[in-house]
Amino acid sequence: MNLDFFKNNNISVDLAIEAHDIVRGQLETEIPGAVVDRHNYENATVTVVKIVEPQAAQMMGKPIGTYITIDAPAIRDNNRVAQKEVAEILAAQLSSLFNLPENANVLLVGLGNWQATPDSLGPRVVDQTIVTRHLYKYAPEELQGGMRSVSALAPGVLGITGIETAEIIKGVVEKIQPDLIVAIDALAAGSVERIGSTIQLADTGVSPGSGIGNKRTGINKETMGVKTIAIGVPTVVHAAVIAQVTSEHFLEKLQQNPMFSQIYNNLSPDYAQDVINSVLAPFAGNLMVTPKEIDDLILSTSKIIAGGVSMALHPAINAEQYSMYLN
């Protein structure tokens, strides 16, 4: 698949690593102005994509910034050892993006709709993350060194509140004046393999609902006036992507078979796109797909992200103390 397919189907590419691979595949060379670095761990691969030039940003459809992708298929296997390692990797990568003093004030924002499982990642993470701002005011004796002032918010979605998410967050930001915002949101993947197995970090903030075609005010430094780190996990994939991949594999098999190669040669280049448009017409081309085990995937990934965020923000807290500070 190329960028034209995504543009023709009005599909946003949420993951920077996917946008990079698509553009690089079209260019058949490295993207000028984009730097990629990879590190392998026992249960995960970390890929850092840095977009440093406007040209690369325009080609990839992403703002200039740093995008860190943690690929860990073991997350889907409910492997506790692997999940612990992923949480520790996440904490280390977040710490490299935070660059915060110990007395920093941090606001966590869980974006999404808690009533819709594939979109409930943000609120689930907030529910399991250590918040301490109230302790600083009402119970300072419960605190220890190495803990930061952290508050959390799950603002819901426009359809439930009637208020733009950015407006709610902006009001809270003006009141508590955080040094950093960490926004957690569900993403749309460009392949089924990445659902529930990939975590993306970005120092460019987030656009709520962009993965499913909704254009909302971004949560970033420009709109909030505060440095914003985004954490996202793909929980859905566009049906057109699945249909396109299926069509491509089918046509490849057709081409390889001497009995049907002539049929393949006579097909119009737009044949697959016409079929996809016809199948998805009842949904106006906007059908999202999520696996039936999405409940378990959300539970696993929310625990990993909450653990990684808590470790990064409160380096003095160990696993044994973690549950004591929840709620």
TrEMBL record:
Homotetramer. GO terms for biological process: proteolysis; spore germination. The keyword Thylakoid does not apply. Initiates the rapid degradation of small, acid-soluble proteins during spore germination. It catalyses: Endopeptidase action with P4 Glu or Asp, P1 preferably Glu > Asp, P1' hydrophobic and P2' Ala. Pfam families: Peptidase_A25. Coiled coil: none annotated. Its EC number is 3.4.24.78. This is Germination protease. It is an enzyme of class 3 (hydrolase). It comes from the Bacteria. SUPFAM superfamilies: HybD-like. Autoproteolytically processed. The inactive tetrameric zymogen termed p46 autoprocesses to a smaller form termed p41, which is active only during spore germination. InterPro entries: Pept_HybD-like_dom_sf, Peptidase_A25. Keywords: Hydrolase, Protease, Zymogen. GO terms for molecular function: metalloendopeptidase activity.
